[in-house]
Amino acid sequence: MSPIKETQVKGLDKIRYPAKEVGYEYKELPEGWWHKADFLMPHDEEPTAFEALQDFMVNKIVPSPTAVELAGNFVSRVILLEVEHPKKDTYEYVRIMISPTDIAPGTPDAEADLIVHINYYDLMRVLCGEPNFDIMTPLWAGAGYLIGNVTAGLDLKDILDAAVEKERVPRPSIWPLGNP
To answer: What is the pLDDT of residue 24?
Structure first.
């Protein structure tokens, strides 16, 4: 017998498995994946999250007129990525500033607008532009978490999506573009 009480509410049974609902499945990238990623500078070994984000900014965000225009619409934001690497059993901290744009290793001096805890390979899948996968996919699925201003996370999502030429998904009115 199931420990969950039977219910007549449609879809309630899916609450136990949110990852399936949003189409999330964890997967590690194959050995040497970084040699094929078009945004990365040459690396002898798997890049750190900071190295990958820095290369992404230089080779994808800056050359994208749409990403640059979007970033210009946002208020200044500080986002702290807490990136968990499953093979190294470590956390790496990368701070991102939006409008003006800056990426640096470590934690920010000021309080972050948003903290995003994400798996290293999920982040790399985002940066590689995997179809039907964005920065929010693992978070909505419960494979990571957000603490702080969700609108800042959506701003980051829009910039990353534009940089890999994904179609921009309109936001709900509760989280307007660039709203503090």
So the answer is: 86
